[in-house]
Design a protein that fits this description.
mainly alpha, single chain, about 70% helix, 9 helices
């Protein structure tokens, strides 16, 4: 198969993976907010699985080429919450948790797939060329989807605005500090993305993703039907 295909393959597979990961992330924000009394996301049509309602060009480009990115934030009105700071934190953490769940589902599918493959083709050399490439592409997509969801979960738990981690952190801060930091949210966001584009944060983020991936693999290996 052409070397060109293998060079562009990571980017081709990242596109559907990004569409799913970011869309589920934002819908889960909206669903938790709705369950806690805020109907804003529902009223604005943001509880939809249509990616066009959630994605931004810049966020998708970041996800496809950098592995870390964002979508259009789901509108939240904390006035509807009975406990604004707590409920905002729960709404915020729903996004990263959804991506973590998608990553776990992906690694389970990969493990089950390898088990089935080993049973059907104990000797990989017996596979036809067509079967080999179909199998290769399926597992490549699963692995891409897995890593992108882990990256999105880790990235969004950075405790700086406007990322989800900041909403969780601020639930434990006195209000005077919370609103003081929020005044500078735009500038903090620009500084953070500058650090990402220059690669300053890439090492830390990649290390966190690797650590989380190793933890998930260790947990999955303990399952009796996959170990």
């Amino acid at each position: 198969m052409s070397d060109l295909i293998f060079r562009i393959l990571p980017y081709l597979f990242r596109i559907p993976a990004v569409l799913i990961a970011l869309t589920v992330h934002e819908v889960c924000h909206g669903l938790v907010a709705y369950k806690l009394g805020d109907t804003t996301a529902r009223d604005m049509g943001r509880l939809s699985l249509n990616p066009l309602r959630h994605l931004t060009p810049l966020g998708c480009i970041c996800m496809i080429f950098l592995g870390f990115g964002f979508a259009k934030p789901v509108p939240i009105n904390t006035r509807y919450f009975e406990h604004p700071k707590r409920d905002m934190a729960l709404t915020a953490i729903a996004g990263p948790i959804s991506n973590l769940c998608l990553a776990i589902i992906a690694i389970l599918l990969e493990s089950i797939g390898y088990a089935i493959l080993g049973a059907v083709w104990p000797n990989a050399a017996e596979m036809s060329e067509f079967a080999y490439y179909v199998t290769y592409f399926i597992f490549y997509f699963i692995q891409t989807f897995y890593l992108l969801n882990l990256s999105l979960a880790v990235f969004n738990m950075i405790p700086v605005p406007p990322l989800d981690g900041s909403r969780v952190l601020y639930a434990f801060l006195p209000e005077k500090y919370y609103f003081g930091v929020m005044r500078y949210e735009r500038y903090i966001m620009l500084a953070m993305f500058a650090l990402i584009w220059t690669g300053v944060l890439n090492g830390v983020l990649s290390a966190a993703v690797i650590w989380l991936s190793n933890a998930i693999h260790s947990a999955v290996s303990l399952l009796p039907f996959l170990g």
